[in-house]
Specification:
The protein is mainly β. The protein has two domains: about 110 residues, Immunoglobulin-like (Sandwich), CATH 2.60.40; about 120 residues, Immunoglobulin-like (Sandwich), CATH 2.60.40. It is built from one helix and 22 strands. The strands form six sheets. Strands 10, 11, 12, 16, 17 and 21 form a six-stranded antiparallel sheet that branches. It has a five-stranded mixed sheet with strand order 2-9-8-4-5, with no helix packed on it. It has a four-stranded antiparallel sheet with strand order 1-3-7-6, with no helix packed on it. Strand 8 and strand 9 form a beta hairpin. The N and C termini lie far apart (about 115 Å).
């Protein structure tokens, strides 16, 4: 009995050696595209002239360090297109222009961008588009948006006007002629003007002051009631990068027999959306 068991065991071992073989195994993996998981703006309604912060969170399961680029474009949703040149209404934030990069974990990074939005940026909705690309050329993009509010305003190159003359002088020009009016808003604007009497040893009536956008023609009498300056209204934003500038000239008619002395008053300008 013992001999039989040994013979069977020997046959089993020989059989195993006779049928042995070897195979090569090859495993491949494909690149996984990066994903923009989050695209967030810090302010949904932004005042023109204020900086917007935008955060992009990018995940790449191949490793966060395989992300080659992250960048942004911002444009007015109806007035501009994605491919337009940069202007008051279009901004390109190239790769590397972020303020901060935060490593969230081994597969995820957050890119923090900041963009000052011009005070001349047209009011309305702006599209935000984020782009990312990894080292293999795989890409992803995502969209968000925010709104820009309305801003009206002008800048006067001088806030103090002076004029000298004698009793009976007509059309004495102000020393600061012309006064420059620079658009300082983000929409077309109407400009209104009014004034007060000049007070001194006597009063000089406000309508003794005349004004015009032209040095020689179209004279208008100043009054105490707001009146639209039609020649410079509406005042447009201008053409990027230069805001629109208009001019106003002033003159004073000195009443006959007015007493010598110093006379002071006020000229006011008000702007409204056109």
């Amino acid at each position: 009995m013992k001999r039989l068991i040994s013979a069977i065991f020997l046959i089993t071992m020989i059989s195993g050696i006779a049928f042995a073989s070897q195979q090569n195994v090859t495993a491949t993996t494909s690149n996984t595209d990066p994903v923009i998981e989050k695209l967030r703006v810090s302010t949904n309604l932004l005042a023109p002239g204020v900086t917007q912060q935008i955060n992009i969170t990018v995940k790449d399961v191949n490793g966060a360090d395989t992300v080659k680029s992250a960048n942004l474009k911002i444009w007015h949703s109806t007035n501009k297109t994605e491919g337009a040149s940069d202007s008051w209404d279009h901004y390109t934030l190239a790769n590397g222009t972020w303020e901060t990069v935060i490593n969230i974990n081994s597969t995820t990074k957050k890119y923090v961008f900041t963009q000052p939005v011009s005070k001349h940026a047209l009011n309305g909705t702006y599209t935000v588009k984020a782009y990312t690309e990894d080292e293999q050329g795989a890409v992803d993009s995502n969209l968000s948006s925010f709104d820009v509010s309305t801003r009206t305003g002008i800048i006067l190159d001088t806030l103090s006007l002076t004029v000298s003359g004698r009793a009976g002088d007509i059309n004495s020009p102000f020393n600061q002629n012309p006064q420059n009016i620079t658009h300082d808003g983000n929409i077309d604007q109407e400009i209104y003007i009014n004034g007060t009497n000049l007070a001194g040893p006597e009063n000089i009536a406000v309508n003794n002051i005349t004004y015009s956008h032209n040095a020689t023609v179209d004279l208008h009498k100043l009054t105490g009631t707001e009146t639209k300056v039609s020649e410079v209204s509406p005042l447009s934003r201008g053409v990027y990068p230069n805001p629109a500038v208009e001019k106003i000239y002033y003159w004073l008619d000195y009443p006959v027999g007015i007493k010598p002395g110093s006379y002071t008053g006020t000229i006011r300008m008000n702007v409204q959306a056109a």
